Amino acid sequence: MNEKRIPQRILLGPGPSDCHPEVLKAMATPLVGHLDPVFLEQMNETMQRLRQVFQTRNPLTLAMSGTGSAGMETVFVNALEPGDRVVIGICGAFGERMVDVASRTGAEVIQVRAPWGKIVDPGQIQEALKSHPRVKAVAVVHAETSTGVLQPLEEIGRFAQNYGALFLVDAVTSLGGVPVPVEEAGIDACYSGTQKCLSAPPGLSPATFSPRFEEALERRKRKVQSWYLDLTMVRQYWGMERFYHHTAPITMMYALHEALGLLLEEGLDSVFRRHLVNGRALQAGLEAMGLKLYADERHRLPQLTSVWIPDGVEDTLVRNRLLNEYGIEIGGGLGEVKGRVWRIGLLGHSSRRRNVLLLLGALEQILRSVGYSVESGIGCQAAEGVYRDFLAKE
Ligand SMILES: *Cc1c(COP(=O)(O)O)cnc(C)c1O
């Protein structure tokens, strides 16, 4: 036997992130049927945990089968019918994906664009609502993983409400990393993914829908375009009826249940603080090494850092060496900054001090060996300074 085994990596890219070991253990639990009373009870608990993490009381809070993109598609196919109008804010690759997904529903898509690396200006969303009658929904990405920007939500939520539009939010990279206050921000539909800040493998898309969204669903003239993602049917499996629709991915449901349990046990505030301190430490370390961060300073995500690749340094060479010599994965750029930025994720279980220092040390070694001049140890020193400051404030 000469089987090639999968090596153990440290996942510091834009997802998937490192799975929590307790989540992997939960996935070794023997299967039960998807209508087994024990399993249904665990689903109820998962829904309850999801409501806590999404900070909402929405009855319709569940996990769609599929990755984050399935959540995106669920939201748009259920919200929109041919002829409807939707305003989408775009400042990166996932905003672009929203446009693609939404336009396939036959709805008219009104695009509000911002330069990559910046946020979408809420005032421009308001302008779009003013100048187009009968907008059914407004959609934005909360944490734009392609640039590392955190989009403020409250103002856009108010504008959407004022104009009678549903507010749809992508929280794939934000949920479990920064607060996603669904009710407070007036969000009507919000979806995430298990493999970013929830420390589980890819495969489920947690999502929540407001009563207002459910009312809009009742008023549809046509059936939802997708059978698999039709909430009018999927909610009958998650709700009181427990009707079979499609077989739940049992093992992934074990994983999500465990991952949410771990998150709530640590406490939402502690989880957000952990992401914040590690993110700021990494960012301080990179800047101390003379690197320039890409995302607008006022709106930088702690859990996803994008950094310009210095002149004369080759993107793939550095990433390959990080992977092969140190077992560390980071991400490359997407779209217009492909080959020009690196994206470093400190998502979920990957968000740890040891990973920050390991990456800064490894990156320093590699950069020096390709002729980029950096003072020895300066990145780690700056990161440690941030940890000290945070500790002092506690
Ligand atoms: C990762 C990501 C998605 C897509 O999720 P998949 O799990 O890859 O389908 C959507 N939106 C954002 C903001 C993401 O970061």
Topology:
Blueprint lengths: L9 E2 L9 H6 L10 H18 L5 E6 L2 H12 L5 E6 L2 H11 L4 E6 L8 H10 L5 E5 L1 E2 L4 E2 L3 H9 L3 E5 L18 E3 L12 E6 L1 H8 L12 H8 L11 H17 L1 H21 L15 E5 L6 H12 L1 E2 L1 E2 L8 E5 L7 H17 L8 H16 L1
Parallel strand pairs: 1-12, 3-4, 3-5, 5-8, 8-9
Antiparallel strand pairs: 2-10, 6-7, 9-10, 11-14, 13-14
Helix pairs in contact: 2-9, 5-6, 9-10, 10-12, 10-13, 11-12, 12-13
EC number: 2.6.1.112
Keywords: Aminotransferase, Transferase
Protein name: (S)-ureidoglycine--glyoxylate transaminase
Quick tags:
394 residues, Aspartate Aminotransferase, domain 1, three-stranded antiparallel sheet, binds pyridoxal-5'-phosphate, 14% strand, 2 domains, 42% helix, transferase, 13 helices
Give an overview in words.
The protein has a 7-stranded mixed sheet, with helices on both faces. The chain has a 3-stranded antiparallel sheet with strand order 11-14-13, with helices on one face. The protein has 13 helices and 14 strands. The protein starts with 9 loop residues before the first strand and ends with a helix. The longest helix has 21 residues. Helix 5 packs parallel to helix 6. The mean pLDDT is 97. It is of the alpha/beta class. 51% of the residues are buried. It is globular and about 65 Å long. The chain folds into 2 domains: 245 residues, Aspartate Aminotransferase, domain 2 (3-Layer(aba) Sandwich); 127 residues, Aspartate Aminotransferase, domain 1 (Alpha-Beta Complex). It is 42% helix and 14% strand.
